[in-house]
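[step 3/7] fold_predict: job queued, chain A
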Amino acid sequence: MSVNDPYAALRFKEFNIFLLVRFAMVFAWSMQFIVIEWQVYSMTKDPLSLGIIGLMEVIPAVGMALFAGHIVDQKEKRNLLIKCIFGFSVISFGLFMLSLPSVLATYETKTILYGIYVLVFFGGLVRAFLGPTIFSLIALIVPKKIYPNAATWSSTTWQMASVLGPALAGFSISIIGVHWSMCVIFGFSLLALTALFNISKKPILNPKIGEPVFQSLREGLTFVFKTRAVLGALTLDMIAVLFGGAVALLPIFAQDILHVGSEGFGVLRAAPAVGAAITMLGSTRFPLHKNAGKKLLFAVFGFGVCMIVFGLSTYFWLSVAALFLSGAVDGVSMIIRQTILQLKTPDNMRGRVASVNSMFVGSSNELGAFESGLTAKLMGTVTAVVFGGTMTLITVGITAFVSPGFRKLDLQKDVEDHEK
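[step 4/7] structure written:
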């Protein structure tokens, strides 16, 4: 097997099963988030309520992240992932029950809304463990020399699921309604759970089993903050996503600005993921290792420009194009960041480093949702999106100016060392 083979990771049966599990989970999670957004905004017509959804998920996800990373590094990964997916299935079933017509007719809107927020909160707890567990499990399924290829396929699968999940959500809301859309989500979570049993248990590579929690957490944080390539990539992406993300406001654009209904909402929500998926598929043949720092800076700058265009657009297909291109450049950013993490992180610290990553980047999506909802409430929806895109451009400029070493970051040598 050649390490230059674009399908190297796909030669391993368990990795293909892993991709199926990841696809089903991301599909279910992204579809669920869209259905929840649509239902909540339809109930309240308040942009701040969309921001609260993100806040309810990010509080437990960030609050538990470091402790989750410690636990992931101490436990067997396959069984831990089974527990995570089971927890998500319980939450999905709860949302399915909350959307029953009889429940909606019996309880006040505020009660239903609070119930949704509570379940989203518990979803944040699950997510605190899910990301680090998946990141750690990949390294136990494929040989180290094809980590970059496996990371690319894993990210591509994530994006493909992110394409289809939102798209199906928009159409399913229109065709079968919110309630039965929740049932579809529950079904995909069960598919992921069933498939996961076809992956064998994996060894625990951490030599410090039973290490005190705070000592373990300090070791993980020290590694991240001392590894400049990791810290720079996480910080840049975090700030860009925090200020530049307009996804949380898409229900407002679909319903009140572009007037395209739930079907158009699904297209808008899927457009960034389509762009990112195409970028990631292309990267399997044209790697992004060389001059990674410059490519990452240009990618985040392009993301900010796309957000400004989207915010100012009043034409549906121009908005779709802007979101598509934002996803394409964001795909570059994601691939480079994941490659840095896979190449620079020791096996015994993957859970903790992935947890820090989820705090920096993953949770910034939800904080960005809250920021977008709050600024939309204060400034207006269009102004909020343009403001976020502008802040992204400023962030890239500052990073490029104060960190010349990051501009020169090149991963080619790291990749070659892992291939030996």
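[step 5/7] annotate
The chain has two domains: 7-210, 212-419.
The mean pLDDT is 80.
exit 0
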